[in-house]
Amino acid sequence: MKRILCVLFSLMLLVGCSSTPAADSSSTEDTKEPTAQTSSINVYTRDATSGTREAFEKAIGLEELTATAIEVSSNGDMATKVGTDENGIGYVSLSTDFAANNVKPLNFEGVEPSEETVLDGSYGMQRPFSYVTRAAGDFGSTEKEQLVAAFIDYLCNSTEGMLVVESAGGVVDLSKGTPWAELAKNHPIVNQDNSSITISTAGSTSVEKTLKAALESFVPLAGNFQFVMNQTGSGDGYKRVLGEEKTGVNAADIGFASRSFNEDEDVSTAMSSGQYAIDAVVTIVNADNTLSDISADSLNQIYSGTLTDFNAVK
Amino acid sequence: MIDASKEKKNKLIDGICKTFFLAMAILSSSFIVILVLFIFMKGISPFLPGYEFGQVNIIDFLFGTTYRQDQGIYGVGFIVINTLISAFASLLLSFPISVLCALFIVKIAPKKLSVLMKSVVELLASVPSIVYGVFASGLIVIFVKWLASIFGITTAGGSSLLAVIILLAIMIFPTITSMSITAIQAVDKDLENASLALGATRTQTNFKVVLTSAKSGIFAGAILGIGRAFGEATAVSMVAGNKLFGPTFDLFDITRTLTSTMLAGLKETSGLDYDIRFSVGIVLLFVIFFSNWLLNSLKNRIGKNS
Amino acid sequence: MDTCFNVTDLNLYYGEKQALKNINIDLYKNKVTAFIGPSGCGKSTFLRCLNRMNDLIEGCKIEGNILKDGINIYETKTDVVELRTKVGMVFQKPNPFPMSIYENIVYGPKCHGLKNKAELNKIVEKSLKQAALWDEVHDRLHESALGLSGGQQQRLCIARAIAMQPEVILMDEPTSALDPIATSKIEELIETLKNDYTIIIVTHSMQQASRVSDYTAFFLLGDIIEYDKTSVIFQNPKDKRTEDYITGRFG
Amino acid sequence: MSRKLKDSLLNSITYLCAFLGVLVLGSILIYVLINGLKLINVDLLKNDYWSKNYLVAVENDQSSTFECDGCKGYFSSKWGVSFIDEVTSHNEKVISVEYIAENSPFEQLTSLTAGETYGQIVPMEKGYMIEKIDYIDSEGNTAIAGKILKQDAQALQESLDNASSITSIYMKSPGGGIRGSLIATLYLILISLIISLPIGIASAIYLNEYADKSKINRWLRQGIETLTGVPSIVYGLMGVSVLFPVTTVFGATGTSILLGGLTMAIILLPTIIRSVEEALIVVPQSLRDASLSLGATKSQTIFKVVLPCCMNGILTGVLLSIGRVIGESAALIYTMGTFISDNPVINGPATSLSLMIWSFMSAEQPNFELACAISIIILSVVLILNIVVKIVGKKLSKNFV
To answer: Which chains touch C (3 or more CB pairs under 8 A)?
Structure first.
C-alpha cells in the first residue's frame, strides 16, 4: 500500500511541476485514508568512526547494529533529530543542552548521568578525552618541548587547569589537582617571554571547547605564547603528531582524541600521552516520551533490532 | 610607415601569445589528469593483493547491497542507484521550475521585478551549502514529516529520500536558472520578432521560439546542475539518514548517497575505512562522467532535430 | 596596363565541396573591378582569396597561384599580415570596432607600432577626408563609432582601411546594408578613390557595377563566365548566360 | 478561443513556477535572516576572534568605598567595579565588566605574565570578561571566584566584597569577532582570482580562437569540462598532497591561505573558461575579420578587439567565481585549515567565513544562530562585490559600447 501511495505521490509531484497545478487536487482525495499510527522505535546512531558511538556500543555490549538504524553526522544533529522525532532514540554527549533540543536524558541502569556519577564510575557510559604529544626531541626546539610539557602538566594535574576544563564542560576529578604555583616550579620555561613560540594542536572536535579554554587560560601564565588549534576529528589527532602526517601540511605538537587511542595508533614513542578529562554519553529520547530509565539490556535489544516498541521497554 | 623590425617583433609576440594560450589550455586540462591519477592511486589500493588492511573483492564492492563500516562490509552498488535516483529526481523536479522561472525573469516580469529576482537568484548561488543543510534539517524535514503523516507513514524524523530530493532541487535551482537566463537573453530578437510578425502570441513565441532556441544553453545549465547534485556532500548528509543497505525506492525511507558515504566520519578514521572512501570517490567520478556523457548525447540529439 | 593580381588555375574547396573552379584572371592596377553573379557563385569567396581571409575558415583548401606583383601570395614564406596591410578590405555590414572614431582609424597604424601622436592625428584627418567623412565627424572624433549612422559607419570602415595606405581595397558588397543616399555617397567615394587605389568590389547591383567599375567579371557556380571591360559586358556580352543574368532573366 | 485558453494556461504555469522559485528562495533568505539577524552587530564585525588573556595583579592598598549612581549590574562598592551576566554570540555565559568607578583599584592593574609586558599597566575596559579571581577572604584564607566556578555576576560581586585582598585576576578581552576571517576570505578570493583569471581567460582564448577540431583539442576541452563534475572534497585532498610543495616555496609551513587559493583557482577554472568562452562566441566574427584585414596580427586582434568586447563575460565569470569561493567549504577544510586567525597572512593558516560556519556547525554544540549570522555577512559581501563589479564593469565597457 505504501509503495503504491509513494508512486502515486511521485507522479503527482511530476505532474504538479510540468502541467497544471489544478490536476492534483482530485488525486489527493482517495489517498487520504489514514493508517494506524505505529510507535515503532526509530534508532539513531552516529557514523561508525565516532568516538561517542564507540563508547555507547561498548557500554551496552552491542554485537551487531540493526540495519534500519539512521546515521547522523554530529552530536548536534543527533539532538535535533531525536528532538523532532517522537519515536526516536539516540545518544549524545553530557554537555548537550537537552531542554533546548526538546530531548530528555535517560537514566542508565538507574543511575542519573551527572558529573558525580561519572567520576565515581557508577554511570557506565563514558569516554576519555585523550592527548598525545610528538616524540621527545621532535618539537623543533627545546623551548617548545618544555612549554608543551608545562602545558600538559597544567592541563592534567593543576587545580587551575582542571577548573578551566570543568567549567568548559569536561568532567574532571578536582580533588586530584595540585595548585599550579607548585607545579610551575618544575617548569622554569613559563617564567620567560614565550611570545615567539607557537603550539599547534590537532585532532578531535569534541575536545575543542575544553582545550580552547585551557590554552587561553595558560597563555598569561606562560609568557604569552601563541597557539594554533586545528581541530578536525579524532583520526587526525594521532596522524598529525606521530603518524603519517607528522611532517606534512598539518603537522601538530599535541593531538587529541575523544576516545582511547586504538591499537593502530602506537603512542609509546610520544613524549607523553594520557587522558585529561572524561565525557559521559547520555541516551536521549524525545521530550514527549514517557520513558525515564533504561537498562543496558533494553538498549542492546533496541539497537540490535529485536525490540521495536517503546511500550515493551521495561 | 611599416617598419620591418616592428613587424618582426609583432610576429614574435604573436607566436609567443599563441604558445602561451596553448600552454594555459594544456595546463587547465591537465589538472583533471592529476586529479584522476591522484584519486586512482589512493582508491585502487584496497583491491590490490597485498593491501595492508586486507584485500577487498572488487565485485563485492561494486555490486554489494550493504555498506557497514562496523562490520567491514563495503558494497556501493545500492548507493550508486540511490545517488542516481536522488540526483535525477531532483533535476526532474527543479528543471521545469528553473527554466520557467528564468523565462519569467527575462521575458515576462516587469523590469524592476526582474532585476530583483535575478539578484536573488545570483545571491542564492553563493549561499554556503551548509546553510542549505541547516535549512533542510530545520524546515524541509518537517514538511516531509507532515506529508508522510497525511499518508499515515512514519518517517525517521523526516530524513528521507524525498527530503534529499527536495533539498537538491532547491540547491540546483539557482544554477540552472542563472544559466537559463543567460541562454534566453542570448536568443536573437529578430527570431522573436519574426514569430510575432507571423501572428503568434507572446506566450506561443516564448514557448515555441525562445525556449527552443535557447535549449542548448538551458541544457548546459541542467548538466551543471546535476553535477552539483551529484557532488553535494555536506548538506545531503544532514538529511539522508545514511541507510546501511538498499537500494531505496520508497520516497519516505532513509537513503545513502555516494557523497554522504564519503563524508560520514571521514575525519575520524584511518586504514581501510579511510582508503575505501577514495574508491567511492572513483565510483562517483564514473557516475558523473557517465551521466554527463548521457546528457551531452541527449543534448546533441535534441540539437540535431531542430 | 599594369596588373595587380595574376590568378592562374585557382581551385578552392570547402571540405568536399568545390567552391571555385579553375579561375584564371588578371586584375588591373588603379582600376575598379566589379564581380557580379548570383548568390553562392563564389565571387565573395574569390575576393577573400586575394588577402587570404579564407585562411580563417576551417576545412578550406586552395590550389593554384595568385601572383601579386609577381609573387605568389600563397607561398609558405609569404607574410599574411604584411599582405593584408597592402590589401585592405571593407565588409558587407559596417563593422566599426566598439571604440571611438579616432581609435578606429589609428587601430591599424598602432598595430604596426606607430606611436607618434602628431603623425597619427595626421593620418586620421587624411583618411577621414579621403573617405569624405571629415566634415561630418571632425568635432566628435572621440565619441563611440557605434553612434554613427550606417552609411557613416561604412565610410569610417573605408577610412580605416585607407589609413593603412594599402595598394588594393577589397569591398565585399559594401552598400548592401545601406539606403540609396548612403549608397550613392559610397559610390562617389569609390570614384575618387580609384585614382590612388586598386579597388575590387563585389556587388549584387548591376547598376552599381555599371556605374562605378571599369572592369566586370561575371561569376556563375564557381566559374568566371566572362571578364571584360564593363561597357563590353553590359552592352554586348559574349556569353548567353551573362546576357540572361544582366537582363534579369535569372539570378 | 482555445488558443487563448492554452496561452493563459501556459502563462499561469510560468507565473506559478516563478512564484514557487521565489517562494523557496525567499523562505531560505528569511529563515537565515530571522535566525541570524539578532547576532549581527558592529562588534561581531570588528572584534578579534581570540580574546586577549591577561593575568593581572591589583593594587590592594584601598581604604575608600565607591559609589555608583544608577549603574547597571552588580556593583562592588569595596572595589568600585560592577559586573553583569552576558551570553556571547558563541552561546557562552560570561561575567563581564560593566562599569569601573574613578580611582578604583581596577584602574591600576599590572600584568603578571612573564616577558616584556611584566609589571606594565593593563587597562581594563568595559566588556572585559572576568574568568577567575584569586583572593584572600576576610578570614585570611585563599579563595577563588569567577566564571570558572560557574558563578554569576551577583555571586562574583558578593565574593569580592568579602575579599580583603586580591592576589590575581584572570581576565579576557571580548572576542568572538570575525574580522580576521573576513579579511582572510577577501585574500582568498583575490588569490584564487589572480591565479585562475589569466589561466582561464588564456585557455578560453585558445579553445575558442585558435583550436581547430583536432582530437587533441577535443581532449583538452573534455578535460576542462570534466573538472566541473569533480566533487570539491576531492580537490581538497588533491590540494594537500599535490599543491602543498608549491606553497612551501613561498614560505608556507602548513595549511595556508595561499594553498586554499591555489586549490580554489583550479576549482574556478571551468567556471571562468566557460563564461569567457560564452562571451567570446558572441563577439561577431566580422570584427575579427576587420582587424585582420587591417594587417593586425592575431594576438593584436585578440587583445585589442576581442577581449575588450567580452569584458562583460569575464565579469560574469568573476562574479560566479566569487560566489563559489565564498561558499566553498569541503575543499578548504584540508587546505586552509579551520584555525581562526585574527591577523591573516598569505602563507599562514586562516579560515574563510564559510569554513567558520562549517566549524561551528560540526562542533559538539552546533551554533546555528551564529552560522546564520555569518551567512548574512557572506550574503552581504557577495551583494557588495556584485554591485562593485557591476559598476566597474559599466565604467570599463563605457569606452567600448
So the answer is: B, D
pLDDT in tens, D96-106: 888 888 778 88
Asked whether the beta carbons of residue B281 and residue D198 sit closer than 8 angstroms, the reply is: no
Give the domain ranges of chain B. 2-47, 77-305
Give the homologous superfamily in CATH for domain B77-305: MetI-like (1.10.3720.10)
Query: Contact, B211 vs B99, CB < 8 A?
Result: yes
C114 interface with D at CB cutoff 8 Å? no
Neighbours, chain D (3 or more CB pairs < 8 A): A, B, C
Residue A301 CB neighbour total at 10 angstroms: 18
pLDDT truncated to tens, each residue of chain A (314 aa)? 344 444 444 444 444 443 333 333 333 333 333 333 456 888 998 877 777 888 888 888 888 888 888 888 778 788 888 888 888 899 988 878 888 888 999 999 889 988 888 888 888 888 889 999 999 888 888 989 999 999 999 999 998 899 899 888 888 888 888 888 889 889 988 888 888 898 999 888 788 889 999 999 999 888 889 888 887 777 788 888 888 878 877 788 999 988 888 888 888 888 999 999 988 899 999 988 888 889 988 999 999 888 888 888 76
Is D210 at the interface with chain B, CB within 8 A? yes
**What is the CATH topology of the domain spanning A128-279?**
D-Maltodextrin-Binding Protein; domain 2 (3.40.190)
Which CATH topology does A42-126+281-312 take?
Answer: D-Maltodextrin-Binding Protein; domain 2 (3.40.190)
Contact (Cβ atoms closer than 8 angstroms) between residue B272 and residue A81: no
Give the HSE-up count for residue D71: Cα atoms under 13 Å, Cβ half-sphere: 20
Q: What is the complex's ipTM, to 2 decimals?
A: 0.77
DSSP notation for A126-194: EEEEEEEEPBTT-SSSHHHHHHHHHHHHHHHHBHHHHHHHHHTT-B--GGG-B-HHHHGGG-GGGGS--
User: Amino acid identity, residue B231?
Assistant: G
C237 touching chain D per CB within 8 A: no
Domains and CATH numbers, chain D: 52-172 (2.30.42), 179-396 (1.10.3720.10)
Identify any residues that bridge with A103 across adjacent strands, giving them in sequence order: A286
Residues of chain B in contact with residue A31, where contact means CB-CB under 8 angstroms, are 150-151
Among C79, C81, C114, beta carbon nearest to B1: C114
CATH topology match: A42-126+281-312 vs A128-279:
yes
Mutate to test the interface with B, among C93, C106, C111, C112 (most CBs of B within 10 A): C112
Cell numbers found for residue C209? 557595377
Provide CATH code, domain C3-246: 3.40.50.300
Q: Where are the alpha helices (DSSP H) in chain C?
A: 43-49, 80-86, 101-111, 117-130, 134-137, 150-162, 180-193, 206-212, 230-235, 240-246
Instruction: Report d(CA D333, CA B262) in Å as an integer.
Output: 15
- Subunit contact D212:C58, Cβ cutoff 8 A: yes
C98 interfaces chain D, CB cutoff of 8 Å:
yes
Nearest CA in chain D to A190: D114
Q: How far is C38 from chain B (nearest CA, A)?
A: 26
Q: What angle do CA A300, A301, A303 make, to 5 degrees?
A: 65
User: Does B274 sit within 8 Å of A71, measured CB to CB?
Assistant: no
A74 neighbourhood in chain D, CB within 8 Å: 361-364, 366
Distance, in Å, from the CA atom of B197 to the CA atom of B199, rounded to the nearest integer, reads 5
D372 touches chain B (CB under 8 A): yes
pLDDT at residue D48 in the model: 84
Contact between residue B55 and residue B49 where contact means Cβ atoms under 8 Å apart: yes
Report d(CA D309, CA D303) in Å as an integer: 10
Strands (E), chain A: 42-46, 70-72, 88-93, 103-105, 107-108, 126-133, 198-203, 226-231, 254-257, 273-286, 293-294
Return the domain boundaries, chain C: 3-246
